[in-house]
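Before we proceed, please read the two lines closing this message. Let me know whether the structure tokens fit the sequence:

…
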Amino acid sequence: DVQLQASGGGLVQAGDSLRLSCAASGFTFSSSAMSWVRQAPGKQRELVASIRSGGSTKYADSVKGRFTISRDNAKNTVSLQMNMLKPEDTAVYYCHAEWTWGDYWGQGTQVTVSS
């Protein structure tokens, strides 16, 4: 079975850092594009960052320069280092995997940034 287990969320103050991790299993991780997507209350899901199998990355304008996505194909994990957090970063963060014939969403992890 495909599994995406996200962890690392929490309650922090503005300006702090958090590192989210997503452990993947049940599919060929190294061949998959991985993303972090967030959803704030009352808002649509927003793509935060993505990393392709080859390592190229893409970021939402709102997090450029503050967030870094990375992957470890040996450990089947994808991480999101979040620095200089802002209250508007508060959301549930989801790990997402995409491959040629499908995709999968993991459960979310809550990130709350207080001002």
About this structure: The radius of gyration is 13 Å. The chain is about 0% helix and 55% strand. The CA atoms of residues 4 and 59 lie 21 Å apart. The chain has a mean pLDDT of 97.
